[in-house]
Specification:
326 residues, single chain, 4-stranded parallel beta sheet, 8 strands, Rossmann fold, 2 domains
């Protein structure tokens, strides 16, 4: 991924109700006419949006995803056919700022019901702290901070890795589908409630599973887990900041080695959709283990689970093992 291509997210609202104001308005009668006798056509930008559409929409929606399995979503370049087909959707679900090509195509699509997940919760700054927390080489931290500020103005887009924020997004998506297809609103509400309950259970599992650990620090390929770390009292140390393909500076590598020793880190995590070369090199040089911590940007045959819930449960198991949970 080229971080310089990422564009900043707009000023963000913290409540679901405010997020729904951002939806393009369409009357209930227009929506009912369009979907009468047919499934609601929903286009999702990448897997976290696809999962919500499928689980909340159920049998009443036909979901298409722009990011195919195995494709790193940040690097997605839309084919002309995909951009043209966007205009045929009844509803578009996306996360503004993480896929610039998608943002541009959606702006030109003319679709009236467009849901930006970033407006359904709050985004915070996380990546700029890389390199500062443990008193290491301050210049390494400054280099990473500069890269991330240029990419996203410091706001972390990985909201789906926090089950609480993801539940907020789910509620907003459910409300949007109800508005777009009022004939099936009761079913959408039921499915939303079920999913929110499951995400609540996942939140509880993470809280209980990560309360008593030998260390709170984990090292991972890129800074995707800031919200998760913040939610459960952990310390994320990213090798490459926001960009999973960026090469860390020698100073950052030395800093990570120091952090690993000081904080008794046992494991360096890598991902399924990004290169594992740097993570494995750092682990080998420091005598550490490696394991997968999946940022859930896509599901493939290598994923440790068939859907969001299962992969997040696998992530919890991996963190418990690496952090020495009791």
């Amino acid at each position: 991924m080229n971080v310089r291509r990422l564009i900043p997210t707009a000023t963000l609202a913290g409540a679901v109700s405010l997020g729904l104001v951002a939806l393009s308005a369409c009357s209930s009668s227009d929506a009912a006419d369009k979907t009468s006798g047919d499934k609601l056509a929903v286009t999702a930008s990448f897997y976290p949006m696809q999962f919500l559409a499928q689980r909340i929409g159920g049998d009443h929606v036909s979901v298409t995803t722009l990011t195919k399995p195995g494709v790193e979503p940040h690097d997605l370049e839309l084919k002309p056919r995909q951009a043209a087909e966007l205009g045929e959707a009844d509803v578009i679900l996306y996360l503004k700022g993480i896929q610039p090509a998608v943002d541009e195509a959606i702006a030109q699509s003319g679709v009236r019901t467009v849901v930006d997940a970033a407006t359904l919760t709050t985004l915070e700054k996380h990546g700029t702290e890389v390199g500062h927390a443990h008193g290491g080489d301050e210049h390494a931290g400054e280099e990473h901070a500069g890269e991330e500020e240029a990419a996203t103005d410091g706001r972390d887009p990985h909201i789906w890795l926090d089950p609480v924020r993801y539940a907020e997004v789910a509620k907003g998506v459910g409300a949007a589908l109800e508005k777009a297809d009022p004939d099936n609103s009761a079913e959408y509400q039921k499915n939303t409630d079920t999913l929110v309950g499951q995400l609540g259970g996942l939140d509880t599992a993470f809280k209980q599973g990560l309360t008593d650990t030998a260390t709170k620090t984990f090292i991972t390929t890129h800074a995707a887990f800031g919200y998760l770390a913040e939610r459960y009292g952990l310390e994320q140390e990213a090798i490459a900041g926001i960009d999973p393909e960026a090469e860390p500076s020698p100073a950052r590598v030395r800093e990570l080695e120091t952090i690993a020793e000081q904080d008794k880190v046992s494991t360096v995590f890598f991902e399924t959709l990004a290169s594992d070369k740097t993570a494995k090199t750092i682990a080998a040089d420091s005598g550490l283990k490696t394991d997968v911590l999946d940022p859930l940007e896509g599901i493939t045959d290598k994923s440790k689970g068939d859907d969001y819930i299962e992969v997040m449960q696998s992530n919890l198991a991996a963190l418990r093992k690496a952090l020495g949970a009791k």
